Amino acid sequence: MNKLIEIKELSYRYENVNVLERINLDILDNDFLAIIGPNGGGKSTLLKLILNLLKVKNGTVIKNIKNEEIGYVPQNTNLNTDFPITALEVVLMGHKITKKKLFGYCKEDIACAMDSLKKVEMQDYANSKIGDLSGGQRQRVFIARALCTTPKVMLLDEPTASIDVKGQKEIYELLKELNKKICIVVVSHDISVLLNYAKNVAHINKTLVYHHLKVDDSIEICDEHLCEVELLSALGKTEICCNHTHGVH
Ligand SMILES: Nc1ncnc2c1ncn2[C@@H]1O[C@H](COP(=O)(O)OP(=O)(O)OP(=O)(O)O)[C@@H](O)[C@H]1O
């Protein structure tokens, strides 16, 4: 297993607030990593540090891949759904333009974007307005946009927020398929579905606790309302400490 990204002793503070403390984490080439933790625990900050959206000041983030090999699907793609843009045009926005053209895109760019849409089974919606798609379909389009640069790792920040459980499962089935070739890292609160797909879990609440989920550890989680502590408890991971009112048995 190759280390795509090596995070060593990474700490971060905004003004006077320590948000991350001495984080150590290796992101491996075939991983499906779930990053979980409470609100304000520092998950998005960690992604931003990996993506160079924030400057690393303490510790190191070693990337053994090029920056463009990191695909990113941001949280809440604050899209004005009335904006008259098609699914294909959204995907083309993530594309590295091959030939400079003043207007429009060349055939190769469009073929490549169509290929990305195909990978997420959205090719039939290429000319649909993004605002006319369901939340799950829209998320697939944003995943297609991130696929344009043929990433080796894909970071997804809350990809299933405000999508129903059926839609969440469909997104994770897609990610499972992509995980045959690409390392997947998902930040999410919707862990009841996510933990059925993840191979490893990083729980972040300023510090990081890492869990390897062995294959036979995988549990069929039927109740989507189970809370985080109960789920980790079910996995036999009782050392997690957070401000939950539920006890860990
Ligand atoms: N630009 C900023 N300036 C100051 N503080 C910030 C900034 N961005 C985030 N924070 C604070 O840093 C802490 C960690 O935020 P972060 O967004 O990384 O957490 P998170 O785990 O992703 O939270 P959530 O699950 O709610 O998305 C929070 O207390 C937040 O208020």
UniProtKB/TrEMBL annotation:
**Top-level taxon:** Bacteria
Q: Would you indicate the residue range of the signal peptide?
A: none
One term of GO molecular function: ATP binding
Keywords on record: ATP-binding, Nucleotide-binding, Transport
The segment(s) forming the ABC transporter domain are 5-231
**Which PROSITE patterns does the UniProt record give?**
ABC_TRANSPORTER_1, ABC_TRANSPORTER_2
Which InterPro entries does this entry report, sorted A to Z?
Answer: AAA+_ATPase, ABC_transporter-like_ATP-bd, ABC_transporter-like_CS, Metal_Ion_Import_ABC, P-loop_NTPase
UniProt lists the family membership as follows: Belongs to the ABC transporter superfamily.
Q: What name does the UniProt record give this protein?
A: ABC transporter
- Originating organism: Halarcobacter ebronensis
